[in-house]
């Protein structure tokens, strides 16, 4: 007695083909997303490089402008004091005092004791104490 085709076979092959299509499309979508990510990151890196170059350029111009302004201050003070070397000495001394003061302040701010996470350390100790009290009591 001959039987007809098994009705489960076409459904099984269609499910397999659907799963295969879904996997292929997912793979293709992932490749396209990765390509889009790479293209976007390349554009962002270019913008970052241009931005950094502009920042370096502006820092160079700021230093040059500062030097010109210091020279102008020396010349202006020379007209008041009557001596260009004395005015240069005064301006240089003031700038040296400012630089030393900033360096000392920065050293105190950047010391290892101020960088230690004191609040986190205190909180961890409190948590450990509370945990030990809960376990023992």
Could you tell me the mean pLDDT?
85
Number of DSSP strand runs: 0
Question: What is the share of helical residues?
Answer: over 70%
- Based on CA atoms alone, the radius of gyration comes out at 36 Å
Fraction in beta strands: under 5%
User: Residue ranges: pLDDT <50 for 5 or more in a row?
Assistant: none
Could you describe the largest sheet, including whether it forms a barrel? none
Number of helices: 4
Shape assignment: flat
SSE sequence, one letter per element: HHHH
Structural class: mainly alpha
Terminal Cα span: 81 Å
Can you summarize this structure?
The chain has 4 helices and no strands.
How does this structure look, described?
By secondary structure, this protein is mainly alpha-helical. Helices cover 90% and strands 0% of the residues. The chain is built from four helices and no strands. The chain has helices at 8-81, 84-109, 112-115, 118-136. Helix 1 (8-81) runs antiparallel to helix 2. The longest helix is centred in the first third of the chain and has 74 residues, at 8-81.
